[in-house]
Request: fold
Amino acid sequence: MYLSARGEYGIMAVLDLALAKGSSPVQAKGIADRQGIPLKFLEHILRALRHAGLIESSRGIHGGYRLAKPADQIRLGDVVQAVEGPIAITPPRSSLRAHNGNGHGAPHSSLIQDVWEEVKVSVVNTLNRTTLADLCRRVQDLEEQRTLMYHI
Amino acid sequence: MYLSARGEYGIMAVLDLALAKGSSPVQAKGIADRQGIPLKFLEHILRALRHAGLIESSRGIHGGYRLAKPADQIRLGDVVQAVEGPIAITPPRSSLRAHNGNGHGAPHSSLIQDVWEEVKVSVVNTLNRTTLADLCRRVQDLEEQRTLMYHI
DNA sequence: ATTAACCCTATCTGTACAGTAGGAATTAGG
DNA sequence: CCTAATTCCTACTGTACAGATAGGGTTAAT
Reply:
């Protein structure tokens, strides 16, 4: 069971934006370099994030991206769903088993759909428990620890 | 984010076994017909379930499969992990970003790995909250309701 | 006008998954 | 012992999709 790489890229991208305190927008090229994401692929991710209303962009020669809302109002679930599409547990193809030879296959599939639904809800809830602001705080904690280590 | 069809097939298979009250083993062909699963594909699923110790088989002309433990000791998480392998959120490829041009890409990936770990735990926990016995009970409840409807 | 950025559509490519094929090993019954 | 039915195992195939790339259009600052 995999979340695709897009989710990871998406989180890295918005985290990069959140950590860029300056008032000027952040260029895709910079994000790509810092986070190790292929630039052309990152552009797709950023487009999805923008369409979801999570980030804003300005075009032209000093253009770039910034968060569209405060970091504590951006939940990881929003980010992941923006770049990966709605979280589904089974591919749509799952209903292709509605018809097979005997005419009434998969008798208990509705029960299993309920289970998948539970799983999906718990994934979304787990992702939504953490906001971008939380992640920023963790980054700062980590760097603080690193500095302490360095001073010993 | 998808669970593959194997998980669904696996659950249908063990549920079929759990609902077969008889003392004689259940043949793969029967499961395949009742649940609408291609026989040859189902064989792979059953093999995985057997290797995980969830079901037992007897070979030969009146062979078949039965549960290796009582239904209330088989959790859906066990079944899913048996047929799909350990639940992973990101493909192993995720560490390929340890080296890119500047030499130190993906600075916050450990934080994100923590998030994925949380998600994974919540998926496993959600699946493990339901046992095969629970599913059987739900099937019976559904059939009871269906019978009532029929009598009106 | 030039340039640097974002924006969009299309295409390539590898891989994982669902499904298929063929046959070896095992057991029951005649 | 022979046959039939079943599990067991290995290998192969086709396809859909994700990651990645390519190329060019659009916008705006200088």
